[in-house]
Amino acid sequence: MSQPAGNAVIAQSGGPTVVINSSLVGVVEAIQESGIAGSIYGARHAVKGMLDGDLCDLTDLSAEHLNLIAATPGATLGTSRDKPDEEYCQKIFQQLAEKDIRWFFYIGGNDSSDTCRIVSEVAARDGYDLKAFHVPKTIDNDLVLNDHTPGFGSAARFVACALMGDSLDNRALPGIKIDVIMGRHAGFLTAASALARVGHDTGPHLIYLPESVFDVDRFIADVDRVYGSHGRCMIAVSEGIHDAEGVPIAQMLAEHLSGEVERDAHGNVQLSGSGVLGDFLAKLIHERLGHQLRVRSDTFGYLQRSFAGCVSDVDAAEARASGRAAVQAAMDGVDGASITIRRTSDSPYTVDYVPVPLREVAGKTRTVPTSWIENGCDVTDEFIEYARPLVGPLPQIGSV
Predict the structure, then answer these.
(1) Residue 127 reports pLDDT greater than 60
(2) Which of 195, 200, 114, 199 is nearest to 158 (CA)?
(3) Catalytic residue ranges
């Protein structure tokens, strides 16, 4: 099948990760090898760069340079939180057409897949041959039709290692410790904290995800039970935990304290970057269980996304392979798609990369299956077995 002539543009969107540059490199090197595009452009700060014509030339980057970029955390092109509507995408399309861009590769989450969809539909109405491909990325692991997404494995590794160390700290100097972990609607990252206790008795003892209703009275009862049994309590909690009406606890606290909440460009309430939830839970424990207790809290926030010391080898390899798979789909004549990762075997662990129509992924959210949640305050062994190959071997510990 003949392919259209023209150039390609690549952009990175949303929160950076420790492996998002691996996906960028996967796209670039696959285009270089295939020759499907004349020039390869990178858009600075995602859709904003495309709108402003702020593009850099990636065409002749050497293999050595690309390997260095792939090993670099963050998003080397810069990203954006803009959520383009159809008018915005029309302007993007006009800029792309001026550069004779026929291939659009967008690395990001479900909002990014929706941007791909809108831009491709705008181009189709104008009779312009533009193929748009979404390359998956999100530490939240919340893209539908995917077994998991690039960025999650490394962020989950960070969470597991952090909770392992924090739990050993808590065991050495007993008390009650709360770690607030990223996850608005999907609790995969917080669930990954359970990997910290595999093979030894550390913690966390309690894990709360946004897939379950958070009940304050039950939370206090759980803490009291664990503390009474172990003389300490290690708690992992998602920033998106909510009440029975679905209102995030952090949002209620922000509204109570200031009367208003900060929202991002997508209309989401800002939950990260504030210690209000951890402080509230610590204060609640003091009030209900006694001020004499040693209670501390930490909020991980953005630290989880691009921490260079906790890269999962599987995550990095799959991020790069996802970028290459998008180019392969283009070479195969696929008329635009989102690349999904499908697990094909657990032993040995293997995956396939499957292109699906953009509409099947765009704007949808995957959450932790309820069958993987135990009693509303823990996760099952099934989740642990799911996550282990994505995170890789964790540090070994000893004791006397």
Answers:
(1) yes
(2) 195
(3) 140
